[in-house]
Design a protein that fits this description.
263 residues, alpha+beta, oxygen-dependent coproporphyrinogen oxidase
Length: 263
């Protein structure tokens, strides 16, 4: 079994690294942090939200909750869940939305890992950005197992499909859930590798795009593509469903919503 104190420490440090990286793009604006308590058990979390000049909205959330009954189950089985989730909605339409999540869940004597990251251009795709993003993911996963990238990128393609449009939400990434190969210590190294590699995949893209010129029409196109993001998160996203089923903080669960959108 993994030591939960070790996981919590890693996740909190990772959250702080992400926050510092995003704040470096802003001249004055900073994240506002808000703690919350878990009403159906023990624990809680922290919501961190930035509304800036580069990041129209970014949220980096950490949570750690436990209880006597696993969410969505009729069985009275103790559970423990902790993770970090992240979303960015950029002011510049040329800069894509990015999503990241890693989580550890224990239910009774079973434990597993989940997570991944994906990229969603808001109407403006750049092949070089997509290639860079996927290369970072592949290089990271290949260092652990040459089959992981193929499996996880396929899972992302399937998971991040907006079923009522029959198309992907963005340009993909990696996704894994209920992952336990039988060697949880080895799996944890891979899991941390995903967490440690995300900024290498994302920040070079933002460094190129956040100051790129755009028009009022480009902005309208961005807002319309954001609508599809909202539709996916409310209709299909498992994390959203788990959050509500577990009695999590609605403000934290809905942090993924963009600040402005158009249908």
């Amino acid at each position: 079994m993994i030591q939960t104190d070790e996981i919590i420490k890693y996740l909190k440090n990772l959250r702080d690294q992400y926050i510092a990286s995003f704040e470096a793009f802003e001249s004055e604006k900073r994240f506002v942090r808000d703690n919350w308590d878990y009403s159906k058990g023990t624990g809680g979390g922290e919501i961190s939200v930035l509304r800036g000049d580069v990041f129209e909205k970014a949220a980096v959330n950490w949570s750690c909750v436990s209880g006597d009954k696993f969410p969505g189950s009729d069985e009275s089985t103790p559970f423990f869940a902790t993770g970090v989730s992240l979303i960015t909605h950029m002011k510049n339409p040329m800069a894509p939305t990015a999503h990241f999540n890693i989580r550890y869940i224990k239910r009774g004597d079973k434990e597993w890992l989940g997570g991944g990251y994906d990229l969603t251009p808001m109407g403006f795709k750049f092949d070089e950005d997509t290639k860079h993003f996927h290369k970072c993911a592949k290089d990271t996963l290949d260092s652990f197992d040459s089959n992981l990238y193929t499996d996880f990128s396929k899972a992302a393609k399937e998971y991040f499909t907006i079923k009522h449009y029959n198309e992907e939400r963005g340009v993909g990434g990696i996704f894994f859930d209920h992952y336990n190969s039988g060697d949880i210590e080895k799996d944890m190294k891979m899991w941390k590798g995903v967490g440690d590699s995300f900024m290498n995949a994302l920040l070079p893209i933002y460094e190129k795009r956040v100051d790129q010129d755009y028009t009022a029409d480009d902005r309208l196109r961005q807002l319309k593509y954001r609508a599809r993001y909202v539709e996916f998160n409310l209709l299909y996203d498992r994390g959203t469903k788990f959050g509500f089923q577990s009695g999590g903080n609605p403000k934290a669960i809905l942090c993924s919503m963009p600040p402005l959108v158009s249908w």
